[in-house]
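hey so i finally got around to running both of the ones u sent me last week. sorry it took forever, my laptop kept dying halfway thru and i had to restart like 3 times lol. anyway pasting them below in the order u listed, first the sequence line then the structure token line for each. didnt double check formatting much so if smth looks off just lmk and ill redo it

first one:
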Amino acid sequence: MIGPIIGDIAGSRFEFHNYRHKDFVIFSPKCFFTDDTVMTLAVAKAILSCNGDYTNLSQAAIDCMHEVGRKYPFCGFGGMFRKWMFSSNPQPYNSFGNGSAMRVSPCGFFGRTLDEVKELSYKVTCVTHNHPEGIKGAEATAVCIFLAREGKDKEYIRDYINENYYKLDLKIDDIRPTYKFNETCQETVPQALECFLESTDFEDCVRICISLGGDCDTSAAIACGIAEAYYGVPDDMRRSAEKYLEKDGGYLLNILREAEAAL
């Protein structure tokens, strides 16, 4: 699950200052982790807490997102999610924001079958993003991770997404000049999936996502989870990303290591 974290960190300094080229330093002192990383690890913690029995995963997701997220109140939460985060009675709010897809990668890594991946995705998503587009964006992302884990090639993955989720009839070079910041699943997930599908390796996926612009830390978090499952992650990039998680006694880093050890 280091892939989405790398994408998030690399994109953090460009989210509101887009750089639509691929020639940038991936890890910079100006980089930081955002809510994408925090919530990805919260979902991982929720899945771990279930010990393989996902009957109560939705409640575990609420508990862990509160527990982990409240430690980082200024990491970039959106307004509605922030209210949910600090509510004593959190309820789903019909969101179709891309936050559902940026945090779902643990479901794609832990799910043992395609149906289980979809079940896990739904259970961790519906607690906030219960709009059909929010559910769909998360599920499409988790499914791509699972298919990549299973060794399916890009043609198979593209066809599966085209048939079941989105029509991927876009090319990154064509949409880059006019692509704008958009926090919806509908205008983030297909683009992020295309970034992965056009990439040649993990690092190239990072660079394509950032060069696209828009909400690039989230696009990269989505795409790089799939890229991790498909390509693996270079050791030097892993080590660089982990350094950003060492604050607070390595709280987030410990969740990551525990989750990866359980896979």
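and the second one:
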Amino acid sequence: MTASSLRYLFKEGLRNTWTNRMMSFASICVLLSCLVLIGSASMMFLNINSLIDRIEDENVIMVFIEDSADDAAVKQMGEDIKNMSNVAQVEYVPKEQAWAEQLKTMGDAQAKFFTDISTDIPLPNAYKVTVDDLNQFGDTVKEIKQLQHIDTIRQNTDLAKRLDTISRGISIIAIIIIAVLFAISLFIISNTIKLTVYSRRLEISIMKSVGATNSFVRLPFVVEGVVIGILSGALSLGVVWGVYDLAINQFSDLFTTLGIIPLRFVDYALMMLGAFIGIGVISGVGGSLITMRRYLNKEGSEISAI
């Protein structure tokens, strides 16, 4: 196929998008609806995952150190914990810092009572350990228990397991929803393009009768699919952005009360635009190719009927 033929077919595809603007508009509306649902569901799942991540950061292992341990032993314990495979972060918490934070949580009278009766600090030094994979939380606790100079360990294995289960469940649900919506959009786009092909069946049959190849006939429809996909993706981003900001503003008081910090849409806008355009183009082009293949395999009867 020559360069001039390609230019002609691309121009024909763009022209057909406008000529068949009602069908194009219907395809864009279908894709727009599916992409808005996908985008809204994605932002909801991202916010839930962000909340779970913040809870996970608080679900740490507190390793309290025996008072008899000297500075060298305490330092060695920290190095041993850092070298464990599932440990993401280790923070040393001296007992003075922990006691000062504890006093801040008390009332003035209660804090004064404890500071007046004794100058001794009733807390041990400790290491605050953040794990990398909650699925291995229990194994990490067992590994830490093997170290020397440990007084006690405070941890919540049950909460870690629940958080890991919730996180996995959210990921699976998100994948299923996106896959279902993508399949629906592909199906409806295919049927919409099928109507367009049917309305131009005589034109296609004439092109085939004078020697046009399947690729020559198919390319304008592919170009239409690309244009529809790009327009749908760009419009969907604007709609999702507007809906998300509206929802954040409407429920801002509730988020503040619950201590939830919503994600900023602008941080995900570029990534979502690329995903929307990609899904739109794949749906538009895929629908065109599927429909045209089925039609071209049956093509020929229109000429013979004239």
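quick thing i noticed on the 2nd:
The chain has twelve helices and four strands.
anyway thats it, ttyl
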